[in-house]
Amino acid sequence: xxxxxxxxxxxxxxxxxxxxxxxxxxxxxxxxxxxxxxxxxxxxxxxxxxxxxxxxxxxxxxxxxxxxxxxxxxxxxxxxxxxxxxxxxxxxxxxxxxxxxxxxxxxxxxxxxxxxxxxxxxxxxxxxxxxxxxxxxxxxxxxxxxxxxxxxxxxxxxxxxxxxxxxxxxxxxxxxxxxxxxxxxxxxxxxxxx
Length: 194
Fold this sequence. Notes:
Blueprint: E1 17-21, H1 25-37, E2 42-47, H2 52-60, E3 64-67, E4 80-83, H3 88-100, E5 104-107, E6 120-124, E7 127-131, H4 138-151, H5 156-169, H6 174-193
Parallel strand pairs: 1-2, 1-4, 2-3, 4-5
Antiparallel strand pairs: 6-7
Helix pairs in contact: 1-2
């Protein structure tokens, strides 16, 4: 049986700098994905041309725009890079430039050339759930995202805040705190099984 061996992480994109190479439909999709989940992300886009919708979206999130063809100098100071051009040779250059200096890179719609995937994300206040299909089916990730958006209550942040406040009152070592939190949250599971 196949298994997804990816390790999910949640990045503080306001303290990392992301470069998107490209200015077309795919660049707009990746920019939209990033800004929806992380509106304060630090993003730079480089492309000789930008679609109007891509420009409008970038400007609404204070994204730095560089109207130029890609070169490796644009990688300086960047932590993550996303290649989205419709020119495979440019995307491959981005990939190999990133690999040579240990930058994390995603070549859109080309899983073998990705250090990370941009999966489906569900955000409800303080709760964020990432969904991955190991790059095999973005449509499945999308459908799962829609499902979780429907079933997770809008007020889940209130529960998170209450549990956080309770957690701060618990005395004892780590093991005792985990035990107390497990006891309180156990009702979340038992109530849904009825």
